[in-house]
Design a protein that fits this description.
single chain, Zincin-like, 2 domains, four-stranded mixed beta sheet, about 45% helix, about 20% strand
Length: about 200
């Protein structure tokens, strides 16, 4: 079976009794189902899960027009509509930045690295750039604008962790070893650091 994202692989499991899961793995979509499902149940649940996955991705990956509307809605909700962008678009040339804004022409660019991230993270970045339409720097007035958004601290932590993970991963996406931390752990093991031998 193939969907818009490539081949679909169905994985049956005897341990899986009642749940069905779908996720992307590289260029494939994996749908995990209970081994007891009939072929008809398999077809039904694969179709259902592919639709759910596509709907979830559509919500997480809005178009430029949807991004603009989202920004307008966020401005109205959290900034009393005072930040009025002329355009809000996805951009692939943001480098390490999550977004950028040009107050003189009221344009906002959002890094396409945010596509697929939780919506509350995207909302924070949009609000951050919208606040720059009101305040150029990162002074107290700027941060006061973001106080109304309840997930500011959480989103900033998420993005810092994501950036740290990117910086400390090898080309295959695995975390790089930290020789200093490994040496410290070897010199001063705590009970949680010791491995149990069978």
């Amino acid at each position: 079976m193939v969907d818009a994202h490539g081949p679909v692989e169905v994985r049956r499991s005897r341990k899986r009794l009642r749940t069905v899961t779908a996720y992307r793995e590289g260029d494939r979509t994996i749908v995990a189902i209970p081994a007891r499902f009939t072929r008809a149940q398999e077809r039904e649940w694969v179709a259902r899960m592919l639709a759910r996955l596509a709907n979830q991705e559509r919500r997480r990956r809005p178009s430029d027009a949807e991004l603009m509307q989202r920004a307008v809605d966020l401005s109205a909700r959290y900034l009393s509509g005072r930040a009025e962008p002329a355009s809000v678009v996805w951009s692939s040339n943001q480098g390490r930045r999550w977004g950028s804004c040009t107050p003189s022409d009221r344009t906002i660019r959002i890094s396409d690295r945010l596509r697929g991230m939780p919506s509350w993270v995207l909302d924070y970045v949009l609000l951050h750039e919208l606040a720059h339409l009101l305040h150029a720097g990162h002074g107290p007035e700027f941060w006061a604008e973001l106080d109304a958004y309840p997930r500011t601290a959480r989103a900033r932590g998420f993005l810092e962790g994501y950036s740290y993970g990117e910086e400390h991963a090898d080309d295959a996406g695995r975390p790089l070893e930290d020789p200093v931390a490994d040496a410290e752990a070897a010199d001063d093991p705590t009970p949680g650091d010791l491995e149990q031998q069978n």
